[in-house]
Design goal:
- By secondary structure, the protein is α+β, with helices and mostly antiparallel strands.
- Helix content is 29%, strand content 26%.
- It contains 11 helices and 17 strands.
- The strands form 5 sheets. The protein has a 6-stranded antiparallel beta sheet. The protein has a 4-stranded antiparallel beta sheet with strand order 4-5-3-6, covered by helices on one side.
- A hairpin with a 2-residue loop joins strand 10 and strand 11.
- It starts with a strand and ends in a 10-residue tail after the last strand.
Length: 378
């Protein structure tokens, strides 16, 4: 038996219920006005109310009229309490904007980029690599109890640090779309990063560096270090608040686990790979035929491809590779493969939904091609 490191950091508090004050929500202007007048208080909008806790500002906000009191409980209002606790816990990052970049993402995820350390140690001219930490404050439901806390994931954040003048000096062409209109700084687009890497011949070295920094082992170590250095250590000042957070606790032994034996692989007519035939799985299938070969040998397979109009030519080459793989690896017959391309005039979600109605129940496999711009969607 082994234990999995469960990616949930529990927030241990001094009590299970908290006193809040609230106002009825009228409009966004009302909420903005409160936040501007009392910047040290976190006003939380939920449904028809604005909740807040005075903290150390009780005397200065007594002039707010129409206040009511309420009790929020961990077992009934975990998300509201977590919103407040997250602001308190992350107070460190708002106080040091120069070292951190903090952004709210959809779904309640908070992305923090540590800008105080270049992970590549200056190896790449004009380019630094930083680390993002994505915090998702959610309750954990376990054994009929509710525990407050958050999950943490990590990703890399390459950032171009050169100005336009540096690119000009090194004869690297910059397009207008690669420049921030408001600040004049260079946007850290992948295409622009590739220009730097190609110009200085860093491609291979950069790939190795990114692969090393992205390993599960590195992510695990960095997540624990981030929680210890930036959340656990500053926790002492939080005790000034009425929401007393006692400590943070990694839930590393909630779920027992077993290491399962590697499954056996069986191919056509029950063939089992011998030592002489122990190459990688894809070639094993090609060499032995797939287990379900009889079911597909004489069957007509209908494939549908959804593709934006601008990507039509690129997809034709892509499909040739797919077709070749199906024929060579899975031993399907070329004449049994029938495909239909649905060309999308637009790349918005509705265009994909409308196209879906054209193939429901009439295809065996659907290949959906998305546009490069979709990469930024949550």
């Amino acid at each position: 038996m082994k234990n999995i490191f469960f990616n949930f950091i529990e927030i241990i508090t001094t009590k299970d219920e908290f006193k809040y004050h609230y106002l009825y929500f009228n409009n966004k202007e009302q909420l903005d006005s409160l936040r501007e007048e009392y910047p040290n208080i976190d006003f939380i909008h939920s449904n028809d109310k604005i909740y807040f806790n005075f903290g150390n500002e009780e005397d200065s906000v007594k002039k707010i009229s129409d206040l009511s009191d309420c009790i929020l409980r961990v077992d009934t209002d975990p998300y509201l309490i977590l919103k407040s606790l997250s602001r308190i816990l992350l107070n460190t990052f708002w106080q040091a904007q120069d070292n951190f970049k903090i952004r709210y993402k959809k779904g309640g995820i908070i992305k923090i980029t540590l800008l105080n350390k270049d992970l590549s140690n200056g190896k790449f001219k004009g380019l630094n690599i930083y680390r993002n930490f994505n915090l998702h404050f959610i309750p954990l439901y376990h054994n009929s109890t509710i525990q407050l806390g958050f999950t943490v994931s990590s990703s890399l954040h390459p950032k171009i640090i050169w100005e336009i003048e540096d690119f000009i000096v090194h004869n690297i062409e910059i397009e207008e779309s690669e420049v921030n209109e408001k600040t004049g700084s260079i946007l850290s687009k992948q295409s622009t990063i590739n220009k730097l890497l190609t110009h200085f011949g860093y491609q291979e070295e950069y790939k190795k560096e990114v692969d090393h920094l992205s390993t599960i082992q590195n992510e695990f170590i960095n997540i624990l270090s981030f929680v210890d250095d930036y959340l656990k250590t500053p926790i002492s000042h939080i005790k000034e608040f009425k929401h007393s957070i006692v400590s943070l606790n990694e839930k590393d032994s909630i779920f027992p686990s077993k290491i399962l034996k590697k499954p056996e692989s069986y191919f056509y007519k029950g063939n089992h790979p011998t030592k002489e035939n122990s190459f990688q799985q894809r070639y094993k299938i090609k060499f032995n035929k797939p287990f379900s070969f009889d079911q597909f040998e004489n069957r007509i397979l209908h494939l549908t491809i959804l593709v934006p109009k601008n990507n039509r030519l690129d997809v034709s080459y892509f499909f040739k590779d797919i077709q070749s793989e199906l024929i060579e690896t899975f031993k399907l017959r070329k004449e049994n493969l029938k495909y239909k391309a649905i060309i999308l005039e637009d790349i918005n979600l509705q265009a994909y939904i409308n196209a879906r109605r054209q193939f429901v129940g009439a295809t065996d496999l659907v290949i959906i091609i998305v546009d490069e711009s979709h990469e930024s969607l949550p």
